[in-house]
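In the lab's daily routine, each protein ends up as an entry in a very long ledger. A line of letters takes care of the sequence, but it says nothing directly about the fold. The three-dimensional part falls to structure tokens, numbers that each stand for a local backbone shape. The outcome of that step, for a single protein, is printed below.
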Amino acid sequence: AAAGECDAVFINLKISDIKDKYVGESEKRIKEVFELARDYEKAIIFFDEIDALAGERSESKTGHERSLVNELLSQMDGLESKGSEKEKRYLVLAATNMPWDVDIALRRAGRFDTTIFIPHPDFEARQKILEIGLKDKPCSVNTEKLTEMTDGFASAEIIDICDKAARIPLRERIKEEKPRRKITMDDFEKVLKGRKAVLSSWYPKAVKEVANAEEAEMFSELVEAGNRYSKR
């Protein structure tokens, strides 16, 4: 969406696209990514799970891991080194579930200096996520009740719950040769029975981690969301 709004090339990267078991190859791939971006007038580079790629160098087990972070820092700084109009049209984004593990040098001005916290979905957001998860799936459910039942779950978990509920009538038809039927509330109740939201364990850990992190004020929204979550 961001690339579409900016009319920019979007370069989407997973850790598997960068990391290599051979020394020097990961750094080479980082350099190639930024060189590719420079071929375009406008480009957005997106790193998923940046913590696995650029964790704190003080905690890195090998020189190879520290070298990888150094290369990323060098390439990001290089985008602005000349200050031309063309170079100012590059944007580097990253996502992580563990922002406190990202090397502090990457969180400084001119790099990833803006942190946007995405909280767990509220009632309205869960309704929209359920609409997406149930799209093109024949169902007969009480969406308002289902929205309440998924309180506390992350967006990806809600989509997964929808997929698992949809498989129940499909499995019945294939294995038990039962007639075709719609997805019902009973199917969702079976999927949700005993299922614990990932966030119920992630939030307490996250709040504890950021309390000890440098620049803890960057994570104030996370702490507030964690406190709200625990009071649900």
Remarks:
- The chain is about 50% helix and 10% strand.
- The chain has three domains: 2-107, 123-192, 199-230.
